[in-house]
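Support reply, case 0932

Customer input (verbatim):
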Amino acid sequence: MREKRALRKKEASETRLRIGPVQQKVLLLLLGGLALSCSRSPRKNWRIIKGMREAWKDIDKRAAERAIAVLYATRLLTASENADGTTTLVLSDDGKKKALTYKASAMKIQRASLWDKKWRVVIFDIPEDEREARDAIREHLEHMGFFVLQRSVFVHPFDCKDEIDFLIELHDIRKYVRFLAAESIDNEPHLKKFFNLE
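Our regenerated output:
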């Protein structure tokens, strides 16, 4: 009996970690205000209430149903009973955080038509006990095309303050991160070449 319980717990944990592209899209659509409803239980009869045609046209119905079932099972979605007997699914707090993470992973820095000759520098010193946040911020910055000046110092030539603020709030690391706008850096020729500014 104890072994079965341990196995179920392990399977639930593994399910929690595996979030595929369809689940990611479901989370992001819900984060954007899309509503999901079902007539009885969260396992069947799914109906997308608003935004259905555009947002869901490239998701297969069965794939969406499986994705929703997994998200519900892993508690990234919570069910809310309505007066008419239907159920509406909404993101749980964990689901919102997960959706924001996927939103962050799709962020790009817009390249301005004319460079303002300033370097945006992100510096952080995140302690070891928050290593997960530290690794995540590094990964996001590299994905957004920042130049790695040092292990915890990243540089970009274009405006990115909003994106950095979003990442800081997402990972709750405000006190560990500094954002600078510098007029010159001593290895500027190398940076200009890296960002194709000449």
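We compared this against your earlier run and they match. Two observations from our side: Residues 2-17 form the longest helix (16 residues). Strands lie at 36-38, 46-48, 77-81, 87-91, 119-124, 147-150, 153-156, 177-182. Please reopen the case if you see a mismatch on your end.
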